[in-house]
Specification:
Length: about 190
């Protein structure tokens, strides 16, 4: 293969490991020294911070989640904070009921639909080839204010959700429908309107 042909190939995926570290240290993101994605000493969730790091939030990253519960603000349209899944990103847990993403339902905007894993739809961007697998999602709907809570919302071609268990999803609002898992495809490159 010529050098020119090699440059046309898709780049090798960037592999990142995230774990609930007992030592509360940040780590370097490699398998033997994963990023700290649990709670720090003050109770602040490190998961969203890690998922927004430049080396993690790039397209085509493969993010391996270790055992334990990872608390996230997730994503809701028009609400600040949380994180967004990117094009081609693979979010791979250690197994159902072994790795759990739990939505932080405090300070949720009334009338919003919060997802543990999602991205903005207004911009028309897609997350083609994104994948979520081998984990549980606790949407933490009970006890929140008037909002809806879901696990996954992906807009993109060839997006894949497999071996995912969803609990406590739904709505507390009379005006916002609740969805557990939403996968939408787009035809061509027209995006959404």
């Amino acid at each position: 293969m010529s050098l020119f042909d090699a440059l046309l190939l898709d780049p090798a995926p960037f592999q990142v490991w995230v774990a609930n570290r007992v030592d509360k240290q940040r780590g370097s993101g490699i398998a033997s020294d994963p990023y700290h994605g649990g709670l720090d000493g003050s109770g602040v969730s490190q998961f969203d911070i890690v998922m927004n790091l430049p080396q993690v939030s790039q397209p085509n990253a493969v993010v391996h989640l270790g055992p334990g519960t990872f608390v996230t603000k997730g994503f809701a349209d028009g609400v600040a904070g949380g994180w967004q899944i990117k094009m081609g990103m693979k979010l791979l847990g250690s197994g159902i009921d072994v790795t759990t993403l739990k939505v932080d339902n405090s300070n949720v905007t009334v009338g919003s639909h919060v997802f543990a894993i999602a991205h903005a739809l207004q911009s028309g961007t897609t997350v083609d080839a994104a994948e979520v697998a081998d984990l549980s999602v606790d949407c933490n709907c009970g006890g929140a204010n008037a909002a809806a809570f879901g696990a996954i919302r992906l807009l993109g071609n060839n997006a894949r959700v497999r071996r995912v268990k969803v609990t406590n999803w739904g709505t507390i609002s009379s005006t916002v429908n609740g969805f557990g898992i939403v996968c939408l495809t787009v035809e061509g490159r027209h995006g959404i309107g």
